[in-house]
Amino acid sequence: MNLEFIFNAQIDLDKAFRESRDKNEQHFNTKIVIALLVELGEFANEVKAFKYWKKDKTIDRQAMLEEFADGIHFLTSIAYKHHIEPQIKVIKKYDDFSLQLAYTYKIFTKLFQNKSKRNIKKAYGAYLGLGQIMNIQYDDIEKSYIEKNHKNYQRIKDNY
Fold first, then answer.
1. Distance in angstroms (rounded) separating the CA atoms of residues 104 and 39
2. Are 85 and 120 in contact (CB under 8 A)?
3. Which residues partner with 2 through β-bridges?
4. pLDDT digits (tens, 9 = 90+) for 144-160
């Protein structure tokens, strides 16, 4: 999947965040992976597939797409900083959302110890695989990303 537009937009957004924040942020590499894991959980919470105890698993598609876009923001920040090309291969190891989710969590946690190009590409690809299971198309990703990107610029302006 070619995410060049998103990569370029994220570079600009991250620059705007850096200019408005503490430049000596400690533990940034750890915090961005934690943020990524939290966003993965928020996305999964909107999908509800893992909630074996719940009968009504109706999905609010708009909320799901917004949470997915949050993960795209953090993954892209990690990816471009490690010189990953914006052409990302979708990795759908499982057709079952919960199994793909567990696989994605496993790959994401590897980023704490080793942000190698291989691990980052795998993490991004696995996340896109979750999106594919949920029938999230590139147009959905781009539209949701742009909407969230605008919110993030507003947050910078409002000193969020």
1. 12
2. no
3. 87
4. 999 999 999 998 988 87
Would you state the torsion angle of the CA atoms of residues 29, 35, 41, 44, taken in this order, to the nearest 10 degrees? Answer: -100
Q: Supply the range of the domain harboring residue 112.
A: 4-157
**Contact of 69 with 141, CB cutoff 8 Å:** yes
Domain count, the chain: 1
pLDDT in tens, 99-131: 999 999 999 999 999 999 999 999 999 999 999
Whichever domain contains 11, its CATH number is: 1.10.4010.10
Q: How far is CA 86 from CA 6, 27, 78, 125, in A?
A: 8, 26, 12, 11
Give the dihedral of Cα atoms 100, 102, 107, 108; nearest 10 deg. Answer: 110
d(CA 96, CA 108): 18
Among 49, 76, 45, CA closest to 142: 76
CA 96 to CA 114: how far, in whole Å?
Answer: 27
